[in-house]
Amino acid sequence: MKQKQRALISVYNKAGVADLASALVKAGWEILSTGGTSKYLQEQGLPVTDVSAITGFPECLDGRVKTLHPAVHAGLLARRSEKSHIETLEKLGLSTIDLVCVNLYPFFEKVQAALSLEETVEFIDIGGPTMLRSAAKNYRDVIVLTDPADYAEALAGIQGNSDTAAQTAFRKHLAGKVFDLTSAYDAAIARYLLDEAYPDYFPLSVKKAQTLRYGENGHQAAALYVNTDRPGVLGSMEQLHGKELSYNNIRDLDLAWKAVCAFGLAADGTPPQGEADAAALGLAPQGAAAACVAVKHNTPCGIALGSTLLEAYTRAYACDPVSIFGGIVAGNTVVDPATAEKLGELFLEIVIAPEFDPAALEILKKKKNLRIIRSTRAPKEEKEYIAVDGGLLVQEANRKLLEKWDVVTKAAPLPEDIPEMIFGMRAVGYVKSNAIVVVKNRAAVGIGGGETNRIWAAELALSRAAKNTAGDPARVLASDAFFPFPDVVEAAAAAGIKTIVQVGGSLNDRASIEACNRLGLAMVLTGTRHFKH
Question: Which of 107, 431, 484, 488 could form a disulfide with 506 if both were Cys (CB 3.0 to 4.6 A apart)?
Answer without folding.
Answer: 484
